[in-house]
Amino acid sequence: MLKWLLVIVVVAGIYYFFIKKKPLKTSTKSTMEEHSSEMVACVTCGTYCSVGDAFIKERRYYCSKECMEAS
Ligand SMILES: [Zn+2]
User: Fold this and answer.
1) Which of 12, 71, 47 is nearest to 59 (CA)?
2) Ligand 1: distance of its center to the CA of 32 in Å?
3) What is the Cα–Cα distance from 11 to 21, expressed in whole angstroms?
Protein backbone atom coordinates (compact mmCIF):
# COMPACT_ATOMS: atom_id res chain seq x y z
CA MET A 1 0.00 0.00 0.00
CA LEU A 2 2.76 2.42 0.97
CA LYS A 3 4.69 1.37 -2.12
CA TRP A 4 1.77 2.31 -4.38
CA LEU A 5 1.43 5.66 -2.65
CA LEU A 6 5.10 6.35 -3.32
CA VAL A 7 4.65 5.45 -7.00
CA ILE A 8 1.66 7.79 -7.30
CA VAL A 9 3.59 10.63 -5.64
CA VAL A 10 6.57 10.12 -7.97
CA VAL A 11 4.36 9.95 -11.08
CA ALA A 12 2.40 13.01 -9.96
CA GLY A 13 5.67 14.83 -9.30
CA ILE A 14 7.01 14.07 -12.79
CA TYR A 15 3.63 14.95 -14.35
CA TYR A 16 3.49 18.25 -12.45
CA PHE A 17 7.08 19.03 -13.42
CA PHE A 18 6.34 18.66 -17.14
CA ILE A 19 3.00 20.49 -16.96
CA LYS A 20 4.62 23.37 -15.12
CA LYS A 21 7.55 23.55 -17.50
CA LYS A 22 5.56 23.36 -20.75
CA PRO A 23 3.54 26.64 -20.58
CA LEU A 24 6.68 28.58 -19.70
CA LYS A 25 8.44 27.25 -22.80
CA THR A 26 5.50 28.00 -25.13
CA SER A 27 4.98 31.50 -23.73
CA THR A 28 8.60 32.48 -24.42
CA LYS A 29 8.31 31.01 -27.90
CA SER A 30 5.08 32.88 -28.69
CA THR A 31 6.54 36.21 -27.54
CA MET A 32 9.53 35.63 -29.79
CA GLU A 33 7.26 34.81 -32.73
CA GLU A 34 5.12 37.87 -32.02
CA HIS A 35 8.16 40.08 -32.09
CA SER A 36 9.60 38.69 -35.34
CA SER A 37 6.21 38.71 -37.12
CA GLU A 38 5.40 42.31 -36.21
CA MET A 39 4.16 44.11 -39.33
CA VAL A 40 5.68 47.38 -40.48
CA ALA A 41 4.85 49.56 -43.50
CA CYS A 42 7.45 50.30 -46.14
CA VAL A 43 8.23 54.05 -46.18
CA THR A 44 8.52 54.15 -50.00
CA CYS A 45 5.62 52.02 -51.32
CA GLY A 46 3.55 51.31 -48.18
CA THR A 47 3.75 47.53 -48.45
CA TYR A 48 3.50 45.72 -45.14
CA CYS A 49 6.18 43.21 -44.26
CA SER A 50 7.41 41.56 -41.08
CA VAL A 51 10.17 43.19 -39.06
CA GLY A 52 12.32 40.12 -39.60
CA ASP A 53 12.20 40.54 -43.40
CA ALA A 54 12.27 44.35 -43.52
CA PHE A 55 15.26 46.42 -44.52
CA ILE A 56 16.09 49.07 -41.95
CA LYS A 57 17.85 52.30 -42.83
CA GLU A 58 18.01 55.35 -40.55
CA ARG A 59 15.32 53.77 -38.29
CA ARG A 60 12.88 53.47 -41.22
CA TYR A 61 11.53 50.22 -42.60
CA TYR A 62 11.61 49.22 -46.25
CA CYS A 63 10.09 46.15 -47.93
CA SER A 64 12.98 45.68 -50.34
CA LYS A 65 16.47 46.89 -51.16
CA GLU A 66 15.05 48.75 -54.20
CA CYS A 67 12.69 50.78 -51.98
CA MET A 68 15.54 51.50 -49.59
CA GLU A 69 17.71 52.85 -52.39
CA ALA A 70 14.81 54.74 -54.04
CA SER A 71 14.12 56.83 -50.96
ZN1 LIG B 1 8.56 49.14 -50.53
Assistant:
1) 71
2) 25
3) 15
